[in-house]
Amino acid sequence: MVEANPVELNPAGLEPPHLEKIPQHVAIVMDGNGRWANARGLPRTAGHQAGEHSLMDVVAGGVQLGLPEMSVFAFSTENWKRSPEEVRFLMGFSRSTIHDDRDTLDNWNVRVRWAGRRTRLWASVLREIRQAEFQTRNNTGMTLNLCLNYGGHAEIADAARAIAEDVAAGRLRPADVTEQTVADRLYLPDMRPVDLFIRTSGEFRTSNFLPWQSAYAEYYVTDVAWPDFGRRQLWEACRAFGGRERRFGGAVDRVRSEHSDEG
Ligand code: IPE
Ligand code: IPE
Ligand code: MG
To answer: How far is the CA of 61 from the centre of ligand 2 (A)?
Structure first.
């Protein structure tokens, strides 16, 4: 592929906004590549290629903003339903993208991790991921979780299996299973709860992305297709997040509190 201009971390004249409240963990469903390409008379794969630039730009924007953690949905456990040609392209493209962008991410002090299921994932893709994880393991900037061959139901089922094995082996009593027991057995147990869940290209659905971690996420859907999304759009989503009132199931009786303020 002919490489577009490499993404700079701090391009001149592109300052992140000053936001009072930033999400601790942003999850992104990078959707709309195929539609973006087809609308231009191009094959779907051209949309995936164009999406690489968006990913690097968004990661740069996250680093600039000081986001602690970002998770991106690159390939779902349901995406195996696509044509063999598209699946093959996506696997090969993931492998080369991780390989090509690893040094840049390392230079940006980004720590790369993988969340997903091993079954069916190409061994050569996993090798590139493991190399990126190893190379960036001591980085202290933003954590980037690459969700590749990831599915939320698969993740929870895998956790359930691990719990069942512990119970069967006598290491765990059923009565001791708590929410934390499940959380400890997810692919990345130390993943923060998702604060902001972004989906590009207009669909109002999660498509099985991080259901456990996003239980109290704020959702943000934009019509912009992933290849047209970039750091400015990420910053706009983070600004919108700052205006949300989060309650986590709690409640404040405004009438009573206003009344008692007066008294
Ligand atoms: C997202 O774009 C990329 C992946 C799912 C791998 P799509 O390929 O889903 O593009 P649309 O949604 O069909 O336009
Ligand atoms: C979600 O997008 C998966 C990724 C972005 C990797 P899809 O395009 O697969 O989701 P659906 O099929 O529209 O629900
Ligand atoms: Mg899609």
So the answer is: 23
Q: Does ligand 1 have an atom closer than 6 angstroms to the CB of 90?
A: yes
CATH of 25-242, one of 3.40.630.30, 3.40.190.170, 3.40.50.720, 3.40.1180.10: 3.40.1180.10
Please name the residue ranges forming H helices in the chain: 33-38, 44-65, 84-107, 123-135, 152-168, 179-183, 231-242, 254-262
Q: How far is the CA of 79 from the centre of ligand 3 (A)?
A: 9
pLDDT tens across 13-51, in order? 999 999 999 999 999 999 999 999 999 999 999 999 999
- Nearest by Cα to 101 from 6, 226, 229, 241: 6
In the predicted structure, residue 112 carries a pLDDT above the cut 50: yes
**Using CA positions, which residue lies closest to atom 6 of ligand 1?**
75
Please say if 31 is a catalytic residue.
yes
**pTM for the full model?**
0.96
Domain range summary for the chain, segments of one domain joined by +: 25-242
